[in-house]
Amino acid sequence: MHREGRKSMRGCGLIALLWFAGALVLTMSGDKVNAKEGPWVIIIPAIMIYLSLGGPFIAMIYGYKVIHYLNWRRDKGMGSLVWRLFVSFWMLIGGMGILILAADNAYHAASKMVETQGAKQMVAGVIILLTCVGVRFLGLGIMRVALSTKAVTSEDKDLAAAESLERAWEQLDFASLEQQLGCTLPVAYKAMMQPGSEWREKSWTLRPHRVAWFHVIDLVPPDRSALRKSPATGEVMLCFANADSGEYWLRPGGEDPPVYTHYTDHSGEVVEEIAPQLSVFLGWKKAEYE
């Protein structure tokens, strides 16, 4: 998360440098702004498009990522506030560009519907007024978004979760899990969870046949957090791995139980059997997940 967040910060900063450089070139270009031939005929319009639309819009994209990172990050000091104000500036510039472009289109569309000059002036005045009001509310909304610290998760929560996960892997306790389930766990399942197991070391793509494949991203440690309840039957299931869009479950109680995939689609939660035994699932042709 830190790497992606800092990458977004660098992107936002680079866009800002290019924007100010473009503004400086445009300011110092003098009569070249009105040039009708030569390279400036292309350079000046390109700079103006970048200053008014391209740069701010790209900065807005980076800005939302930066805000997400700042909300997640533990450090909430002055540097975070400066970045929030910096991002809000670019969001405001980009939002103003959208409003002005929309207002210009609205004026031209309305001008075609009226014939008198007085009516056109009235339309222009109304559009300018609405644009100014829109910019005001836009600014307030953007500042609210930029200064908000709401986040689904945080650095502290993720660190705590990572430490808890690390402890679970360091202290494999199959006996407690078997006691909770009231049955013996499959030998193949225990082997998967052991240190040095290829299933723990890497992520895999399984191909039972040519037109189907399953991604095993990472394993779920054998503790209480791995217990699930089937949405259809209510029975206790054991989650042993994460997929790219769901999980893989076992039905506890057998020496070689079937494997199920659990995911959510438009109809709700789905639990579907994909292999009649765990040994079949583990025996499918596999390649390292990329």
Automatic annotation (TrEMBL):
<keyword id="KW-1133">Transmembrane helix</keyword>
<keyword id="KW-0812">Transmembrane</keyword>
<feature type="domain" description="Knr4/Smi1-like">
    <location>
        <begin position="173"/>
        <end position="282"/>
    </location>
</feature>
<keyword id="KW-0472">Membrane</keyword>
<feature type="transmembrane region" description="Helical">
    <location>
        <begin position="82"/>
        <end position="103"/>
    </location>
</feature>
<dbReference type="InterPro" id="IPR018958">
    <property type="entry name" value="Knr4/Smi1-like_dom"/>
</dbReference>
<feature type="transmembrane region" description="Helical">
    <location>
        <begin position="123"/>
        <end position="147"/>
    </location>
</feature>
<feature type="transmembrane region" description="Helical">
    <location>
        <begin position="40"/>
        <end position="62"/>
    </location>
</feature>
<dbReference type="Pfam" id="PF09346">
    <property type="entry name" value="SMI1_KNR4"/>
</dbReference>
<protein>
    <recommendedName>
        <fullName>Knr4/Smi1-like domain-containing protein</fullName>
    </recommendedName>
</protein>
